[in-house]
Design goal:
- By secondary structure, the protein is an alpha/beta fold.
- The protein has a single domain (about 1-275), classed as TIM Barrel, CATH 3.20.20.150.
- Helices cover about 40% and strands about 20% of the residues.
- It is built from nine helices and twelve strands.
- The protein has helices at about 10-15, 35-50, 70-80, 110-130, 150-160, 170-180, 180-185, 220-230, 250-275; strands at about 1-5, 25, 50-55, 85-90, 95, 100-105, 130-135, 165, 195-200, 205, 210, 240.
- The strands form three sheets. Strands 1-2-3-4-7-8-9-12 form an eight-stranded parallel β-barrel, surrounded by four helices. Strands 5-6 form a two-stranded antiparallel ribbon. A two-stranded antiparallel sheet has the order 10-11.
- α4 packs parallel to α5 (about 150-160).
- The model has no long low-confidence stretch (mean pLDDT about 90).
């Protein structure tokens, strides 16, 4: 399945279904919880038409703060209302002492940080009564690292029992910025725990610096990394992220169709070999 992030910029296109045809949609629950009126009707129509995956922004699983139970109560009610089985968030922190930082900041790659996150994920999964799916994030400088990023992610996934949202573009961006091999990095991850994949564009602003923007088309090297990766995992949903600088719908459809062609070729071939 190839999905697309739901955006108000082209909300009507999702309802009409004439110019974009995703297999599922993804949106941030924070933007839609406790909403009424026109947009509540819109999201109800989306839920009737498409399977929905929720990808959050403000959980801040790596924050030193305890989980915000008031937020989780509203979140659980929303996930239950729309029968959403996959809820994902970022392996990052976005607030401290209840001050929201409005950015996704990296967590130190340390054993004590990993244990902290593991404990919070277990508590989160127990409360939400569904698996938590954790995304690898882009970052621009490591913070007090004592272990590799791949080991940090793998430890958290294995010991918390959560699943992995594998963002291919984030791996590419980090590999470029921090000068490591993206394929070697991916091989070190618990690929059997991948629940779904994100694909997106980025912007190179310096010869040695890429910024993860979600505002550009996917480039060929990221498609190549995606194609290489999906040979190593079971078939999972794949999401195209485009948060701003929205192109014509035909261009978004073109990107979705390219992702669909790659997955059909690779995963159908794998199924034939298994059979």
């Amino acid at each position: 399945m190839i999905g697309l992030g739901y955006r108000r910029d082209f909300a009507d296109e999702f309802i009409e279904g004439n110019n974009i045809k995703p297999d599922f949609v993804e949106f941030a629950p924070e933007n839609w919880m406790n909403i009424g009126g026109y947009w509540k009707k819109q999201i109800d129509q989306i839920a009737e038409r498409y399977p929905i995956i929720c990808h959050g922004l403000s959980l801040s699983i790596g924050s030193p703060d305890p989980l915000d139970m008031n937020f989780l109560k509203k979140l659980k009610a929303f996930l239950n209302e729309y029968k959403i089985e996959i809820y994902s968030e970022h392996l990052s922190f976005a607030k401290c002492d209840n001050a929201h930082l409005y950015d996704l900041l990296p967590i130190p790659f340390r054993e004590d940080a990993a244990k902290h996150v593991i404990q919070k994920i277990k508590q989160l999964q127990d409360y939400l009564e569904r698996p938590f799916v954790m995304e690898n994030v882009s970052y621009y400088t490591p913070v007090a690292a004592e272990m590799s990023e791949a080991s940090f992610i793998s430890t958290i996934v294995k010991e918390s029992g959560c699943q992995l949202l594998l963002d291919i573009n984030n791996v590419y961006v980090n590999g470029f910025n921090h000068k490591y091999d993206p394929k070697s990095f991916i091989e070190k991850l618990p690929l059997d725990k991948v629940a779904y994949i994100h694909m997106a564009g980025h912007e190179q602003i310096e010869p040695d610096l890429i910024i993860d923007t979600h505002g550009e088309a996917i480039i060929d090297p990221v498609y190549d990394l995606f194609e290489w990766t999906i040979e190593k995992i079971k078939p999972v949903p794949v999401l195209l992220e485009r948060d701003f600088n929205i192109p014509e719908m035909e261009e978004l459809n073109g990107e979705m169709n390219r992702l669909r062609s790659i997955t059909n070729l690779k995963w159908n071939k794998k199924n034939e070999l298994v059979a």
